[in-house]
Amino acid sequence: IRSAIRGLLLEADDELEAQLRSVLKRDDEYRSAGKPVCDWDEPAARTALVDALARDGYAALLALDERTLGGPLRQAAELLATVLGQDLEQRDDGVFRIARRVAKDRVISTVDPDARHGHKTAARGFDGYKGHIAIDPDSEIITATEVTAGNVADGSVGASLLREVLDEANADPTEKVEVYGDSSYGTAELVEHIEGAGAEANVKVQGPSAPSGMYGKDAFRVDLKASTVTCPAGRVVPIARSKDGGGLASFVANCAECPLRDQCTKSIEGRSIRVHPHEATLQRSRERQRHPDWKARYRATRPKVERKFGHLMFRRHGGRRACVRGCARVGHDFALLAAAVNLKRLAVLGATARR
In three state form, how does the secondary structure of the chain look? Predict the structure, then answer.
């Protein structure tokens, strides 16, 4: 919060800066960087600090009310408003405190507002950005790169990574184009996008999950033509459709006396099965993934991408850590790194320039 207030003061001209400083009540010049002075071991001191910073922040925003802001000053004001709104809450006694929640799409840095918290796994997190690549599996040349904030779903960039190859597939329907991708990109929307371009979608779709020892969704038979779902005990219920094309099949009325209840759900109300708006695409993809030939082709192709990421991460710069800030700049840096890796690969392949 203090950093955001400092950023606003730095972007203001001399006259506006004087007006803003006149409404700041906390004993702080907001010029030097670093943590504010506080007895961090004393809970009451920490509470007073947060409240004082919050009141200064809101006072500064109030001083800007009804002003027309532009450029960096507007961005600094928006950042301050975002930080105050996402990180604070007001107690019943009117004192501001750190919010007992995590805001959606939370800004984690006032120095790099585009950065976000991300998760590689449930137990392994990181701060910053994610790099995405597409490669030609035969030559192992990187054909496209994308960079997103750390909290952005991988599947959202699949279409842009594949734009060039899918355009070629559309232009020449006689040429067979196969697209492989791991389960983090395996959304029904991306599969349909690939198939719509005339290519073969070998993007792995995640299977339904379930607690250990319990029936997963794949133990239920979803009949989209009849719009029904049949449970492992043989009970059939209709799918209550929603506006987006999905739906919900509720077995609540059938679970009370069901002998398989303990293997199916721990919910007091009973089991329900949610039907995805693109359930037919998911079913088709999962059925294809079970075939031994598909598994063999997938296992032969996917490691090439993982190896290419290893090449990108071999040196610290541009791989694990970027030397610039902002999603656009990090994206340019990552593309430059990919180009350097491609040059190295071309040398390995013995490629020569043609006149």
Answer: CHHHHHHHHHHCCHHHHHHHHHHCCCCCCCCCCCCCCCCCCCHHHHHHHHHHHHHHHHHHHHHCCCCCCCHHHHHHHHHHHHHHHHHEEECCCCCEEECCCCCCCCCCCCCCCCCEEEECCCCCEEEEEEEEEEEECCCCEEEEEEEEECCCCHHHHHHHHCHHHHHHHHHCCCCCCEEEECHHHCCHHHHHHHHHCCCEEEECCCCCCCCCCCCCHHHCEEECCCCEEECCCCCEEECEECCCCCEEEECHHHHCCCCCHHHHCCCCCCCEEEECCCHHHHHHHHHHHCCHHHHHHHHHHHHHHHHHHHHHCCCCECCCECCCCCHHHHHHHHHHHHHHHHHHHHHHHCCCCCC
